[in-house]
Amino acid sequence: MPLALLALAIGAFGIGTTEFVIMGVLPQVADDFGVSIPTAGWLVSGYALGVVLGAPLLTVLGTRVSRKKMLMFLMGLFVAGNALSAAAPTFGAMLAGRVVASLAHGAFFGIGSVVAADLVAPERKASAISLMFTGLTVANVVGVPGGTHIGQAAGWRVTFAIVAALGVVGLLGVARLVPETGRPETGSVRGEFAAFRNVQVWLAMAMTVLGYGGVFAAITYVTPMMTEVAGYDEAAVTWLLVLFGLGMFLGNLLGGRFADRALMPLLFTSLGALSLTLLLFTVTARHQVLAAVTLTLIGALGFATVPPLQKWVLDQAAAAPTLASAANIGAFNLGNALAAWLGGVVIAAGHGYTAPNWVGALLSGSALLLSFLAAHLGRRARSTSRVVAGSHTAAATAGRADADRAAGRAPAGAGH
Questions:
Q1: What region holds the Major facilitator superfamily (MFS) profile domain (predicted)?
Q2: Which end of the chain is more exposed for a tag (fewer CB within 10 A), N or C?
Q3: SS3 152
Q4: What percent of the residues of the chain are helix, what percent strand, and what percent coil, each to the nearest 5?
């Protein structure tokens, strides 16, 4: 494994920790600033919106410099945002810090995916991407529970100060280990936007929104579901989320390995199984052991789609992959926001805390249908390419035969 992948994984660990740890310390933050929990919730939604906007914006701005320099700038932005959050004197300053940190999120994973894929042989690209995303999954197993515990014991400001320090480690790692590869090949904003002329890029991002949105429809409301329906104590939710994080970790590694061998079959399998598991969650959520097992499976199946979807975008936007890759990271967060809103709608309508699981199943099922469409279009495009190539070959052969006859020679390949 190239050591540069380790540097990218450390950066991903810090970013994953700051994204999700706010959910564990949200009551403490609300108390300190004297705001309600719903108001403090803007620290979550504001971060997600910052990712959606920052991913394409900063990626476009980064086309003028090397990917390594851009990754270093993004980690610096991440450090500044978390330092501002740790020292924020007011809630508004805290929100600003969250938004600043979030701007680095999408572009880091988007550019980092391209860098990771370039570090290895073509047949190992998805595995390299999954190794970088391992930092994000480990954050949900170690960083988020650890940060929550520290925040509850020593104060949430200490948590964000530690996250900022992790960002410094990631910055130094990128500076020391990531090779200088020059500017992106397209070298222009127009070249990067050209990737979006390919309908397959849009299909991949739609699959990302719907597929990963299916996961977050359930996970956003996992605390009331586990306490009110499954009957767990509130303190047990932290360990349930650790199980979810372990599922993410395993799913990400397996997804990266099998995506290099059979990308579309993996998507069919993971999205289909995810839809079915979310449907079953409406029943298993009423039994503690089954609920814990199902939660782990949702994490594994949901994150098994990440490496293949990211690689699919890179393959379809091969001439200008950076912006498309970053936009796909934004699509994950757009899916999170959409699913959380839809889940809240069905709960508010009186359908109960398990209703978001039905929403998630419908979203993931829709992503499965789109994957069938993407595979069909891919097969048709390859068939058309073979026909065109065959026509060109036949035309060239006929042209040579005509030239041979005009010169009084037997056509090439003819018997004597």
A1: 4-382
A2: C
A3: helix
A4: 85, 0, 15
Same-domain status, 153 and 94: yes
Contacts of 340 (CB under 8 A, 6+ apart): 216, 217, 220
How far apart, in whole angstroms, are the C-alpha atoms of residue 142 and residue 146? Answer: 6
Tell me how far apart the alpha carbons of residues 248 and 325 are, in angstroms, rounded to a whole number. 20
Count of other CB atoms within 10 angstroms of residue 82: 29
pTM over 0.85? The answer is no
b/e code 145-172 from CB counts within 10 Å (16+ = b): bbbbebbeeeebbebbbbbbebbbbbbe
Answer yes or no: is 410 within a domain: no
Q: How many domains does the chain have?
A: 2
Check residue 180 and give left, alpha or beta (phi > 0: left; psi -120 to 50: alpha): beta
Q: Residue 275 is encoded by which pair of tokens?
A: 């839809």
User: Containing domain of residue 11, as a range?
Assistant: 1-180
- In one-letter notation, the amino acid at residue 103 is L
Task: Single out the residue of 300, 202, 315 nearest to residue 263, CA to CA.
Answer: 315
Ordered per-residue pLDDT tens for the chain, 416 residues: 678 888 899 999 999 999 888 877 877 888 899 988 667 878 877 888 888 888 788 877 777 788 899 999 999 999 999 999 999 999 999 999 999 999 998 889 888 888 888 888 877 887 888 888 888 888 888 888 888 888 888 999 999 999 999 999 999 999 999 887 645 554 556 666 766 778 888 888 899 899 888 988 888 788 788 888 999 987 787 788 889 889 988 998 888 888 878 888 999 999 999 999 999 999 999 999 999 999 999 999 998 988 888 788 777 776 667 677 777 778 888 887 788 778 888 888 889 889 989 999 999 999 999 999 988 888 887 777 666 555 655 555 655 666 566 556 555 544 44
